[in-house]
Amino acid sequence: MMTAMNLSLTGRTALVSGACTGIGRAMAVAFAQAGAKVVINHLGQATLAHTLQEELRQLGHETWAFEADVSSSADVQHMAAQVLQTCGPLDVLVNNAGILREKPFLQTSEADWNHMLATDLTSVFLMCKAFLPAMVARQQGVIINIASDLGILGRGQFAPYCAAKAGVIGLTRSLAREFAPQIRVNAIAPGPVATTMVSLEAMSQTAIDKELEIPQHRIAEPQEIAATALFLASDLSRFYCGQVLGPNGGSVMP
Predict the structure, then answer these.
(1) Which of 81, 164, 213, 228 could form a disulfide with 121 if both were Cys (CB 3.0 to 4.6 A apart)?
(2) Residue 211 contacts residue 191 (beta carbons within 8 Å)
(3) Helix (H, G, I), strand (E, B) or coil at 144
(4) Are 39 and 13 in contact (CB under 8 A)?
């Protein structure tokens, strides 16, 4: 007989990388509102992390913050050891940290390429490598990787970003096949979202105009992406495996 399912994360521990701003922050808040204990990862954002912790504590749940560069193997391994010792094993791992840079391909240096792939793709590999063993030992867990609609569509002047996010999708599908059914691995490929990365300050007007060409003609709020993450973290998604969910306003229609 099938048990009742809901969006509750009560009794579960979730880590969100890049949790202090944008989509990461919205996911951390949504998880706490659903009853989860939240582990905040950040890099050089101690003040923002403290502010977020105070907000989450007001919801009545435990929360911790750890600084680590998720593109650094040493940092990730150190953080994983601290998290497992302090917070216990994770029930949910969200690989959200990332960067976005607009640059013509012929002006893109090898250093640009390496930095983007390290931050947006290698970080996912490192985090999964660090936290999966404890999930395997418990025979349970959820991993959510944040990709992008541009990892499916591609776009001129965003080659490293598109390549990295396409890689996240491929890695998600591989891990989903290898670790199912005990561990659910899925991805979210958002369309344009109102964050510091998608703004007139960070992108050209041409790029912003391109984002607004989608059928809904608007940029999403981070909370709209967090809703998808909450679904994937919950028992409601337990038959989802290796999927790429697209809260994208219609930019991609599989």
Answers:
(1) 164
(2) yes
(3) strand
(4) yes
Q: CA 240, CA 158: separation in Å to the nearest integer? A: 30
Tell me the catalytic residues.
Answer: 161
**What are the C-alpha distances in Å from 115 to residues 109, 119, 130?**
10, 6, 21
CA–CA distance, 124 with 145 (Å, rounded to integer): 7
DSSP codes, 166-233: HHHHHHHHHHHHHHTTTEEEEEE----B-SSSSSTTTS-HHHHHHHTTSTT-SPBPHHHHHHHHHHHH
pLDDT digit string (tens) for 75-98? Answer: 999 999 999 999 999 999 999 999
Give me the helices (H) in 12-143, please. Answer: 22-33, 46-57, 73-86, 110-117, 123-138
Q: Which domains does the chain have, with CATH numbers?
A: 13-242 (3.40.50.720)
Euclidean distance between CA atoms 18 and 98, whole angstroms: 7
Q: How confident is the model at residue 5 (pLDDT cuts 50, 70, 90)?
A: confident
Q: Do the Cβ atoms of 237 and 180 come closer than 8 Å?
A: no
> Which residue bears the tokens 């990862």?
41
Is the bond preceding 133 in cis, omega lying within 30 degrees of 0? Answer: no
> How far apart (Å, rounded) are the C-alpha atoms in residues 185 and 238?
10
Give exposure, 20-33, as e/b (b: 16+ Cβ within 10 Å). bbbbbbbbbbbbbe
